[in-house]
Amino acid sequence: MKILRASDYKRMPWKNGKGETAEIAVFPADASIDDFDCRISMASVVEDGAFSTFENVDRTLVVLSGEGIRLCVDGSDPIELRADSAPYIFAADAPTIATLLGGPITDLNVMMRRGTSDCRVRRQTSEPVAAWCRGVTLVFALDRCTKDGLQLLASTDCVMLEPGEALVLDRDENASVIVIDIA
């Protein structure tokens, strides 16, 4: 089990240069923005515009805070995502236009290169978090999370579990996490 603190996330410009992202994890660990198999990052979106494109990659987007965002992917009907929406999966190589619904948002991006691994992203709220992984599992804290009554994660920290490891976080009525399973 490895704790990833938000203060240690690697900050870098977006691929399109129009913003900044905080890279939480990348696989393989030495991969660049162009050759990763999986990349997990958090970003602030402060204006409307086009998303960066990534060839042969699927993106899962979760709105963490703010009013929300409207996405138009490859000319399809727009979809609105808010902080309480389910994770949304779409092709990262499709042209995507984003329109903010009422000001800046913060989002979580999970990008997986097609044909490398499977990935499942889910939001979990107000129940004990139990994770046992066959691949790599990341638990991203939306709120403070405790284990055995002690703080384990602050908001936007993450814990990474390797194959075979398990984690049970305390039940907390206010705690929410995003669980990312990579197999």
Structure annotation, total helices: 0
Fold-level CATH name of the largest domain: Jelly Rolls
Largest sheet: 6 strands, antiparallel
Q: What is the number of strand segments?
A: 19
Mean pLDDT, nearest integer?
Answer: 90
**Structure class:** mainly beta
CATH class of the largest domain, named Mainly Beta
- What would you report as the Rg, rounded to the nearest angstrom? 16 Å
Total count of domains: 2
Report strand %.
Answer: over 45%
The global form is globular
- For the termini, the CA-CA separation is 17 Å
Strand order of the biggest β-sheet:
2-3-4-11-6-9
Poorly predicted residue ranges: none
CATH homologous superfamily descriptor of the largest domain:
Jelly Rolls
Q: Which architecture of the largest domain does the CATH hierarchy give at level 2?
A: Sandwich
Order of helices and strands: EEEEEEEEEEEEEEEEEEE
Helix content: under 10%
How are the SSEs ordered, and which strands pair?
Blueprint: E1 2-4, E2 10-13, E3 20-27, E4 38-45, E5 49-50, E6 57-65, E7 69-73, E8 79-81, E9 88-91, E10 96-100, E11 105-113, E12 119-125, E13 129-132, E14 136-141, E15 145-147, E16 150-153, E17 158-161, E18 166-169, E19 176-182
Antiparallel strand pairs: 1-17, 2-3, 3-4, 4-11, 5-10, 6-9, 6-11, 7-8, 7-10, 12-19, 13-18, 14-17, 14-19, 15-16
